[in-house]
Batch of 4 targets.
Target 1
Amino acid sequence: MRRGRGWAGLLLVVAVLITGGAVTVAAYDIVDDGEDRYAGQVMDRYAAELSAAVGDRAARYTETVSDLAAAVGAQSDLRGDDFVRMTATLDGARLPGAAGISFVVAATGPEVPALQRFWRARGASELKLLPATGTSTHDFVVFERTFDSVTNIVGVDLAQRPQAGEALRTAQASGRTAISPAYYLIRDDNLAPGARQTSISFVAPVYSGLGSSAPDVFRGWIVMPVRGQDFVARTLHDRGQGAVQTSLAEGTGAHAVLATAAPGRRVADESLVRQRALTVGQRHWELTLWPTTRLINATDRGMSRFTLAAGAALTVLLCLMTAVLTGSRNRALLQVDQATTALRKDIARREDVEARLREREQELHHLAFHDPLTGLANRLLFYDRLTHAVATRGRTGGRLAVLFIDLDGFKEVNDRLGHNAGDLVLRTVGDRLRTSLRAADTVARFGGDEFAVILEDIESPADARSAAERVIAGVRAPIDVNGEEARVSASIGIAVSDRDSTADDLVGQADAAMYAAKNAGKNRYVAT
C-alpha cells in the first residue's frame, strides 16, 4: 500500500512536469512567432526602400546620358568646344561614382585614318586613335570629360572590353539607354589590383535628325563609366541605417558584386534574408539584405527567451510543490490518529497552492501579451485583437481604423537625460494614449518609441482623425523628469478599413502613412 502511494506521487509529479513543460513551450512558440513576423516585416520594409533608392539612382544616371545624347544629336556639326559646353555642369559631386563622360564613334579598320582627321578638324587636335587588335570593328573615344584624376582615355578603342562593346551594341539595336555587364574600366588598368572597383557603363545612342522629316542617322554613343562601389554604397549604407548589410550584384546566380554595405555584425538567420530583383538599363541586378544585431535588438527579440525561462521556473516550482504535497498526503494516511488534523492542513495547503498557481498563470499570461515597461498590449496581443476585429467587421459590416504612432524627439530625450528618463517618457506617453482614447480601444507598444492603436466601431474616417488629433495634443504636452522638462511629439499614420482589408494591409498602410507624416514635418497625422 505504501509502495503504491509512493508510485502514485511520482506519477503526479511527472504529470505536472509534462503539463507545465507543454504550456511553457506553447507560450514560447507563440511569442517567438510574433517576434519573427515583426522582424520579417521590418526586413521587407528595408528591402522595398533600398530597391526603390537604387532604382532612382540608376534612373537619374540613365536620364543624364539620355539628355546628353539628345543634345549631341541636335548638333549639326559637333565640335570639341560644343561637347565641353554641354558637359560643363556634370561632375563627380552630382554623379557619385562616375569616372567621366565620353562621346564614342564606331569605325572599321580602313576608316580609322579618315576618322582621325575628321575629328581632329573638329576640336580634338591631339586625337590619336589606338585600334585594338583582333577585332574588325572599333569603338573610339573622341571627346571626354573626366571627373577624377585617373588618366583619360581619348583615342582608346573600347572594343578591347567585350562588356563595354555589348552595351554599345544593345543601345544601338534598341535605340534606348543600356547598361553594360560588370567589368574593370580601361582607365583603371594602371591602378593596383586592390584599388580597382567592379564597374559598369551607362550607354545612350546618339542620333541626328530626331524631330525632323529626314531619316534618323546613327552617329555614335554617349558613354558614362561608373565605379560600382562609389555608385550606390553610400545610398545602401544610409538607407539601411546600420540595421542591415546589403549587396548589389549584377545578374543572378554566379554574378559580380557591384557594391556592398556591411555595417555591424550579421545575424545568421536565413528566414530574414531578403532578395529583390531590379531591371535597369536592359540589365538585371539583384539586391540582397541580411539582418544585423542592431535590427534584432530593436525588435525586442528577447521576450520569447524570457517567456521560456519564466515558464520553466514556474514548472519546476509546481513540481516541487506537488512533491511536497504528495509526501504530506502519504504521511497523513500513515498517521491514522492524526488523520482529521492532517486532512484539514492538506486541504488548506492545496487551496493556497491553487491560488498561487492561478496567480502565476495570470502573471505568465500577462507577460506573454503585454509590454513590461508600459503595461500596454504588445505586438502579439495587438495582432490577435486586430485579426479578430477584422473578422468581426466582415460579419457585422462595421468599420475600424489602425493608428501607427512614432515619437518625434525621443532619441534626443534619451541622449540628453538618459535611458531612465526615456523609460519615464514612454510610460507617460502610454498613460496619455489610454486617456486620449476610448476604453474599448486597444493601445499597444510595438517596441522602442513605436505605438499602435485599434479603433473599433467608428462611424467614419473623421472619427479616426479626431482620435489622432487628441493623441497629438496629449503627447506633445511637456513631461517633468526629475525637475527637467522633456518634450516629444507624435507622427501618426491612419489606415481605415474597407471591405477587403486584412490585418496586415491595415498595419502596412498605417506604417507607410506614419512615414509620410514624418517626411511632411512630424507632429502630425497622415491618413491613407
Target 2
Amino acid sequence: MVFNVRDSKLHTKEDYPYEIEVIEHIWIRMSDGTKLAAKVWLPKGANKKPVPAILEYLPYRKNDFTALRDSIRHPYFAGHGYASIRVDIRGTGDSEGILYDEYLPKEQEDALDILKWLEKQDWCTGDVGMIGKSWGGFNGLQVAKHQPKQLKAVITLCSTDDRYADDVHYMGGNILASDMLWWSSTMFAYNARPQDPAVVGESWFENWMERLKKTPPYVEAWLTHQHRNDYWKQGSVNENYEAMTVPVFAVGGWADGYTNAIFRMLEYFSGPKKGLIGPWVHEYPEVAIPGPAIGFLQECVRWWDHWLKGVDTGIMEEPMLTAWQQESVKPAVHYEERQGKWIFEDAWKDAERQQQVFSITSGGALTTERAEAATVSLASVQQHGLYSGVWCPFGQEGDMPSDQRMEKGLSTTFTTEPLDDALHLLGLPKVNIRFKSNQGDALIAARLCDVAPDGAETMISFGMLNLNHLNGHEFPEALEPGEEYTATIQLNAVGIRIPKGHRLQLALSPTYWPHAWPSKEEATIELVTGTDTTLHLPVRDDSAHAQDGEWPFEKPEAAPVMGREILRKESRYRHINYDLLNERWVLDDFSDEGKRKLPDNGVEYGSTNRNVYTIREGDPLSAQAHCTWELTLGRDDWQTEVHTDSKMTADKTNFYLENTLKAYLRDELVFEKTWEKTIPRDFQ
C-alpha cells in the first residue's frame, strides 16, 4: 500500500497568494500528558494575521511514509491562506503512546485536544477543517459527530459512516477474507516501526520496545466481533445521523471499496453536504487512476474558503452530487483512463430512484416479464471468485477484475437479451431472492456483469450476504434446512452506461473466495423463482438533466513533490495457480513497494508485502490466508527492519490466528514475539 505520487499529469504550482513557512516538528500535548508529533505549513505572517487551519490526522508517519503525498497538498493549502497541519496519531510515527486499535474513543478524544490546541495558537483563528482519505476520512467524520466548536467543515475521502458494513473487516455480514487479515497484518507491521531518534532523541529505542510489546494484531479484536455489536457501532456515525451537522464533502471513486457510503451520507446527514464520485481507485482525485484526474485541490480551497473564510465561492449553489458516468469497457486488470461524462444530481433519496426490475428465471434468463415459479440449484464451488480483483484497488496493475468468463462455469448465471436501448445506471443495485438452504450456515454472492456482443464479460458490481443475517447484522440466526426464506443482497454502487446491444448478466453462488470466508460446510442454495426473486437496477433518465456533460473542474495542480531518490523500483505480481494433484487453488499476490530516500531528512524506507490465499476444491475448511511484510526504515548507521507473518485458518468450530513479529536493528534481532488466538465461529 505504497503512498505514491503520480505527478506526470499534475501542473506544479509554485506561485501562491501567500508565501509559505514550515515548522518541521512541533509537539502537541494531550490532556493525559501524551505528546503527539506534528508538522505545520503556515502562510508567512500568520502569527500577526491569524488564518483558519486544516488538519490531517493519520497513523502513517509524517516524516517518511506519507511525506511525499503530504508535500503536494499541505503547502498548497498554506499557499492559499491556511495553516495546514499533519499529526501522527498516538502510538504511530514520532508520537508517544500505543495505538491499540482503529478508531478508538481515545483517538477521537485526542483529536478534540488537537482542535483546542489549534484554537490557542497565535497563527490560527480557531476555525478548523479536517481532511483525510481512508483512515483520515473516517476520523474526520467521527470527530464531527462530537460537534466541537472549532470544527467548521470536513472533507472525507474513501471512508464510511458504518464500520461494519463498509470496511476491510466484513461485507454483507461475511468475513472479508481477502482484506481482514491483510489489513491487520499491514497495521501490525506499520505500527512496529520506531520513532525517529533525530526527533525524539535517545529514548527512541526504549519507546520502540514498548511499542513492539504492547501493540496487538488488530485482527484478534475484529474477528472476536463477528456481527454488528457495540464494538462496530462505536465510530459508526450512522448510529446518530442527526449529530452530523458539520458540513461534509464526501469524495470517492467507482473503483474504490467505500463508495456506497457516499449515497447514504448524502441522503441522511443533517448538515450541508456535497458528494463527488469519479472513476478513481482509493486515492486523491488529482493523482488518481483511472483518469480523468481533476483539479481537486482547487475544489478543496473553494470548500474551505466558503466554510472557513466566509467567501462566496458558489460551491454550495452547485448540484449536491457530481459523478462520472462511465462508458462500457472491455475487461482488463488495469485502466489508466475511463471514458464517460460528468453528470449531476441536486438531491439524493435512494427510495425515490427509478428502478428497472428483471425477473430471474429457471431457464437462466433475466427478463422484464414475470417469471414462472420453479427452482434453480446453486452449488458450492470453492474456487469461485479468484478472478474478482482486489476488494479495494489502490491503483497497482492487476487490481481490477479479469474477464468474468473465467468464473462463469463456477457459478449460476442469468442473462438478458441484447438491450434495445442504452441503459444508464446510477445508484445501488440489489437482488431479491426466495431460497432454501441444505445447511444451517450459508452465504450468497452476486456478480453483475456487462456482456459485450463478442461475449467478453466485465464485472460492474458485486455484493455478498451472510444468510444467517436475514434479520440484520446484529442478531444472526441459524437457517432451518429446507425452509423457505427471502433475502436482499445489496450490490456495490454503480455509475455506468450500458450500450444498446449489450447484455446484463447476474451470477449467483454460495461461495466467493477469497472475498468471503467460506461456510463451514458446502451449502447448496435452492433458488425459488417467481415474484420474490428479482434484480433491481437504479436507472437514470439522462434526458431530464440538461447540465450533464459539462466539465466542472480545473486541470489537476498541486505543490511540487519533495525531492526523493529511488533506491529500488516498485514491482508486483498476482498469480493464480492450480495444483492438479492436490486439487488446490492458490492466489499469490506480491508487491515490492520499492525503497526511497528523502534527501530533506536522510530517511530511507521501503517495504515488500506478500498475500497468499489457498483453498482446495470441495473443502471449505482448507481455506487459509497468509500475509507477510518486510519493512525497512533508517538513515546512516540507524537501520531498522520489521518482519511480520500472519496466518488465519478455521475448522467447523473455531478460527485460528497466528501473528509473528520480528524487529532488527542493524541486522541484529532485538525483538521477537508470536501471538496465537482461537476464536469461536459465530455464524460465519
Target 3
Amino acid sequence: MKEAMPVLTAGAGLHETLALLTSQLRPDANHKEDMVFLKDVFSERSLGYLMKIHEKLRQYERQSPTPVLHSASSLAEDVAEELQSGPMSTEEKELLHLLTSPHLKAVLSVHDTVAQKNFDPVLPPLPDDLEDELEEESVKIVRLVKNKEPLGATIRRDEATGAVIVARIMRGGAADRSGLVHVGDELREVNGVSVIHKRPDEISQLLSQSQGSITLKIIPAIKEEDRLKESKVYMRALFDYIPLEDKATPCQEAGLPFKRGDILQVVTQDDPTWWQAKRVGDSNLRAGLVPSKQFQERRLAYRMKMGTLPNPKSPKKPASGLRRSFRLSRKDRQGSSGEGSDPGDPDFLTYEEVTRYQQRPNERPRLVVLIGSLGARINELKQRVIAENPHRYAVAVPHTTRPKKPHEKDGVEYHFVTKQQFDADALNNKFIEHGEYKENQYGTSIEAIRSVQAKNKMCIVDVQPEALKRLRTAEFKPYVIFVKPRWALPPEDPDSDEDLQEMRQSAIQIDQQYGHLVDRVLIKEDSASACAELRGILERLERESFWVPLCWVRT
C-alpha cells in the first residue's frame, strides 16, 4: 500500500517544510543520483539554520516593530549625568560604567540613526555669503563625500588664461560617481580657499588633505562631456609598470601599477597618451592612469635611439644551456621560419588585446606547449602525464632520417623519412623546429600536431622557446607552460657549482626573452608533484575559460 503524504499544518515553518520534504525523497532507478544529491543538500544542518533565521526575520517584519524613542544616546547621557550628581550604590556605579562604555554608546548611536532613518552623510552648512556668489549663473557649488579615497580627478593650468582646469576624471572615483564634475570645468575654490594663484601641486595637496566632505566652487565647461559607457577592452600587459618611478605621468598618485601578465580593463582611451584602466580582479572601483600603447612604444623607441634599450629586432643570443629538443648540439640547432601571431613581432612589447575563451565541445582541444630551463626535464614530465591517460593526451610523433630499429614502428616512435624528403619538408616550413644530431635529422611537424588533434586528443609538445612564434596561431590556441626546477630559482648562491648557476641563468634568460608569451609558470619540486600540477592544468583547460589574444577568436 502506498504511504500517505503527511499533511502540513497552516503554521508549519519553512524549516519544518524542508525537513518533511527531505523525509519524502526516495531514490528510484532513474534518478537515484539526483535524489541522493537533493537529500544531502536539504539535510545540511547549515541550511536548516538559515531557514530558521529566515522565519525569525519574517516574523519580525510582520510585527512591524517601531522604536520606543529616537534619542537613546541623549537619554543615556542624561541618566549618566543624573547618577553622578550624588552618592552611588554598587548597582548605580555598575550602570554608570555600562552607560559610559564606548561600545554601548556606539550601539545606542546606531540605534538612533536607524530609528531616525537618517542614513545620509552629515554635511557642514553652506557659507552664509554663498547667495552673492551664486548670482552669476556660470558658477556651480559642488559638495562631495570622499572619505579617505582620492578625489579621482587631475588638474592642469591653462597656459593661455592661467585658469585651473579639470584635466581628467578617473572612472569609478568620487568625482566620477557624483556626476557633478566634468573634464574642462574650471576650479576656483576648494573648501573656501581660492586656488587661482596656487601651483597645481599645492592644489592637489589641498584636495588630498580634505577628509569627509569637500566643497568645490566650479565654473562649468561650455560643453560638458557626455559620460561614456565603460569600455569592454581588455589588455594583457607585456611589461611591468611602476607609476612612482614614471616622471612623465601627469599624476603619480593616480597611476595604476601592474605586472607583466596582468589583465587590464581599459575603461577609456579618450586621451591618446594616458589610458584609464582597472586591473581585472581588483576590488578598487576607481580606474588608474596607464601609458597608452602608442605612448609606451614612442618612449621605448626613444630609449633604443639613445642606447638605453636593446634593439628588439636584433637577433637574440640563445640562452646558454637551454633544454635542447632532440638533444641537438648548440652549433647544429636551427629555427624554422613561418607564420604566427606573436606579440613579439611588433617593435616593442607593450599590450596585447585579449578576451575570455572556453573550448566548446565541438572544437579541437587546445595545444599545450612546454618550455623549460636547463634541468627541468620536461620530456620526462610530458611522457609521464601521457602514459597515465593515453586516451586523452598524446605527443606529436617527430620525423627523423635515422634508420628504424627492429623494435620500432613507423608512425609510433618516429616518422622515418629519407634525407631528401626531410630537407624538402624543412624548405617548405612544415616543421615547427628541427635540427641535426649525430648526422641524423630530427623535427616536429605541424601535421603531426594536427593528427593528434584530429583524434580529439590534447596534444602536448615540448619545444625550444624560439618555436613559440610558429605555434601562436588561432588554429592551435597554445597554452604555454614554463617549467622551472626549484633549484633554478633566485636568490643565487655565489658559492653554488657551475651547473646550478647555468640552470639559474637559463631560467632568467628564457623569462626575459619569452616570459610575455607564458600562460603559467610551473615550479618543479619533484616529478610526482610536477606531474600532478600539470595534470590539474590540463583538466582545467578543458572546462574553464582563459584569456587569449583577441585575434584568436575574432570571427
Target 4
Amino acid sequence: MDRNSVIGFVLLGALLVGYIWWNQKSAQDARIEKARQDSIANLNKPKEQQAKTVAIGDSSAPAGQDSLRLTNEYGPFTAAATGAEATAVLENKQVKITFTNKGGQPKAIQLLDFKSSAGEPLMLQQGSYNRQGIKVPLPNNQSLNTADVFFTPGNVEKHPDGSQSISYRLPTSNPAQYIEYTYMLKNDSYLVDYTINLVGMQGVLGAKNVEYQWNSQSDLQEHDMQQERLNNQIHWRDSEKDHDYFTLSNSSEKKLDRKLQWISFKQQFFNTTLIARKDNFASADIHTKVPESANIVGQQMTTLFIPYNGAASYSFPIEVYYGPNKYKTLKAMDMELQKIIPLGTGIFAFVKYVNIWIIIPVFDFLGGLTSNYGLIILLLTIFIRLIIAPFTYQSYVSSAKMKVLKPELDELRAKYKDDQQAFGMEQMKLFRSAGVNPLGGCLPALLQLPILVAMYSFFPSSIELRQESFLWAKDLSTYDSVYNFGFTIPLYGDHISLFTILMTITSLILAFYNRGMADQSNPVMKYMPYVFPIMLLGIFNSMAAALTYYYFLSNVISILLQWVIQTFIINHDKIHAQIQANKSKPQSKSKWAERLEEMQKRQADIQKTRKK
C-alpha cells in the first residue's frame, strides 16, 4: 500500500468519525431543542389546553378554593376568566376579518379575491394556533396571556370614508385600569390600523418593555407543498432600514436584539406583516417549526417587545397587512416591504434590478393589454429577445468565423496533437492574424445570463400567474403535470411536465445547431451541450409552468433566429474573404495577448524541462 492510499484511508476514517460525531451531536441538539420548543409551545397554548396539564380543583371543591385558584391564574383579570364567546366582522372588498371577544383578537382572516388550490375560500388565518396577546406578569413568577381571557367588545362602527372599526377592552378589578385594542379596517385595502392602549397599567406591567406574543400558522394553499415550504419565511426590517430573513426549518429560532420597523410572516404568495407606525418594536424573539403534517406549511411563535415606559396612558399603533405578495401593492406602502418577494438572491442578487427596472414594468404593461398570460409571456419573450438581439447577432457572426477557421484549426490540431501548449500558441496566432476574437461567442451568452436568471426568480414569485391557466397548464405558477406516475422517480419526480419536456427537446435542437462552436476533439466539450439539458430535466420538472414555457419559447425563437441569420444574413464567403484580408495586414499585439503568449511560452519551457 503506497503513501497516497494510506493518506486516503486516513482521510476517509476521519470523515467517518466526524460524520458519526456530528450525527450524535445533532440528535442531542434536536432533543434539547424539542424540549425548549415544547416549553414555549405550552406557554403559548390557550388556557383550555394548559388546563389539561395543570391540576385544578374539581367540582366538589369549596367555592373559596375555586376563587383562590382563579385569582392565582388570572390575577387582576379574574373577572374576565369566564364568559361566552361572541364574534364580529369587519369586511371590505379585499378581506374579511372575524374578531372574537376571547382575547379581543382576529379569529379568522379570509382574502376575498383568492381561492386555495382546492378551490376553497383562502383563509390566511384560522384555527386556535393563531393568537396574539400581551403577557401579563402575575405573582409567584406566573404569567397570563391576554389571549386567554374575555374582553368587552364595542360595536362595529362604519365611517364616512368607508372604513370600519371595533374596539375590545379588558379591565382589571379597577375599572380605571384596562388594556384596550382598537381595530380599523381601511376601505379598499388589505391594511388594518391596530392600536394597543394601556391605561393605568403601570402598577400591573411595570415600567419595562411589554411582551406581545404573536403566534401564526400557514396552512397549505398551493398545489406544491415543497415549494410552499421553500418560500415560508420570516422577514424583518430594523430601524437602520436593513432587511433580512430566514426560511422556516424543522426547528429554528432567532433573537433580534435591535429595534424593528416591521416583521413579516411570509407564505409563497401571501403574508401577514406587523408594522410599528410610531415607535419601533424594541426587539423580538422568534421561534419557528415545520410540523410533520400534510396540511400545515409552517408555524411561528414570536415575542415582540413593545417599548412601554410605564406611563399612565400609553398607546402603541401598529399597521397590520393581510394580503398578497404583489410587488406594486407592497411597494406603495413605502416601507420596502416588497423586499420579501424573491426577485434575486445570493450571488445573483443583482438580477433583482433587471426584474425591478425591466421585467416587472413590461409585464404589468402587457397585463394591461390582455388577460391571457400565455400571450403575455410570449410578448415578453419577444421583447427580451429584441433587447439582446445585438448580442445574439454578434454571437452568430463569431460562430460563422469559427466555422470558416475550422479546417485550419483541424490542421493545427493534427500537427500538434501531442503538444497542447504548442497548439494553444499557434491557435492564438491564427486567431490574431485572422482578426477573430475566440471569446466573441461567449461574451454575448454571458451578457444574456442575467436575463435568464431574472426569469428564474420572477416567474415563480409572480402572484399574477397564480391559478392562471394556459393550454394544458391549469396553473402557471406551478408545474404543468400531464401525467402522474403515482410514485417518485429519483432525481426526476412523480409527474411529467410537458413544458419542461418541450424546453429540453428545443435545448437539444439548439445544441445540435451550435455543434460547430464546440471543440470536437474534447469529449467533454463535444457532448456537454447535449448532456446538460438532460441533467436539468429533473430540476425544471417541478418548476413553475410559466418559467419552462418561457425557456421553451426562448429556445424556439433562438432556433428560428439562428436559421434566418445564418441562411439569409451572414455571408460565409464574405467572412472568409475578410479573414484572408486580415491575415495580410500587419498585426499588432495587445498587452493582454503579449502576456498570454509569454505565459504559454513559460509553460511550454517548464514542460520541456520536466520531460528531460
